[in-house]
Amino acid sequence: MVKAIRFHETGGPEVLKLEDVEVADPGPGEARVRHSFIAVNFIDIYFRTGRYPLALPNGLGSDAVGVVEAVGPGVTEVRPGDRVGYLLGPQGAYSQARVMPADVLIPLPDGISDRTAATLMMKGMTAQYLFRQVYPLEGGETILYHAAAGGVGLIACQWARALGVTMIGTVSSDEKAALARANGCAHTIVTSRENIVQRVREITEGRGVPVVYDSVGKDTLMDSLDCLQPRGTLVSNGTSSGSVVVDSQLLAAKGSIWMTRPAMVHYIHPRAHMLDMARELFDHVLAGRIVSEPQQSFALADAAQAHRALESRRTTGSTVLIP
């Protein structure tokens, strides 16, 4: 038996319960992983509240790191004793240990600690596919990135700097602005007292930006569109403030805008490609170009408290659970 967070109904953080669960031996193509750190992501809130439906009761979480305890028949991707992380597979990462499909496990290099790796699986790989695949940045661009002090945002700040990209980042407070700038964000906009469109036009001398990465959604949609150059691209990579519905005629009126709503699952397969993505990310970390550590840590039993902190926007950077 191991401890795991389960929920039997959708709702607020209070539906998350710490329970004893059985962990079976791994079957063909599977591996059992003992977790050392578990990442908390905003998408976990969508599952908990029912915005993304799950059959209940169920576990929660898709992103963790740990060590392989055992493997099932036919597994060649990993071996017992390997340090691994993952961001794919069924919900249930909020647990001390679990059985996973072996082909989603990513081996961790010796120079990257479990604690650091826990901030890189979903968040670092998200920065990779946004900046290197969805709208590939080559260097020299000026971009707008919403929520620059968040878990993905702080990695994005550093990745943009490494690429020679001028990043304009929105944040909700002066404290978060200072943190984003310390991580490489060239310009910050404090949304509680500054006009996003006006500031972007000032910074770009009226030109606007070729791409906006918008994980906020409903509250920032119109500002994002108004910051774009003609034929610019809106990457809608999240909806923390609410869903986005856009009339195609609006995209035309705003300058023949391209809009995409990417999902990680469509950018990470096959396994060889996923490992290449991870290798590029790890190379930046090992070279010191990206430094990432959890900003908040909670015990596994306090998962509800972690969710409250994340939803209240009191957090910066990455949040992890410790089993």
From TrEMBL:
<protein>
    <submittedName>
        <fullName>Quinone oxidoreductase</fullName>
    </submittedName>
</protein>
<dbReference type="GO" id="GO:0003960">
    <property type="term" value="F:quinone reductase (NADPH) activity"/>
</dbReference>
<dbReference type="InterPro" id="IPR036291">
    <property type="entry name" value="NAD(P)-bd_dom_sf"/>
</dbReference>
<dbReference type="Pfam" id="PF00107">
    <property type="entry name" value="ADH_zinc_N"/>
</dbReference>
<dbReference type="InterPro" id="IPR013149">
    <property type="entry name" value="ADH-like_C"/>
</dbReference>
<dbReference type="GO" id="GO:0008270">
    <property type="term" value="F:zinc ion binding"/>
</dbReference>
<dbReference type="GO" id="GO:0070402">
    <property type="term" value="F:NADPH binding"/>
</dbReference>
<dbReference type="InterPro" id="IPR047618">
    <property type="entry name" value="QOR-like"/>
</dbReference>
<dbReference type="InterPro" id="IPR002364">
    <property type="entry name" value="Quin_OxRdtase/zeta-crystal_CS"/>
</dbReference>
<dbReference type="InterPro" id="IPR020843">
    <property type="entry name" value="ER"/>
</dbReference>
<feature type="domain" description="Enoyl reductase (ER)">
    <location>
        <begin position="11"/>
        <end position="321"/>
    </location>
</feature>
<dbReference type="InterPro" id="IPR011032">
    <property type="entry name" value="GroES-like_sf"/>
</dbReference>
<dbReference type="GO" id="GO:0005829">
    <property type="term" value="C:cytosol"/>
</dbReference>
<dbReference type="InterPro" id="IPR013154">
    <property type="entry name" value="ADH-like_N"/>
</dbReference>
<keyword id="KW-0560">Oxidoreductase</keyword>
<keyword id="KW-0521">NADP</keyword>
<dbReference type="Pfam" id="PF08240">
    <property type="entry name" value="ADH_N"/>
</dbReference>
<dbReference type="GO" id="GO:0035925">
    <property type="term" value="F:mRNA 3'-UTR AU-rich region binding"/>
</dbReference>
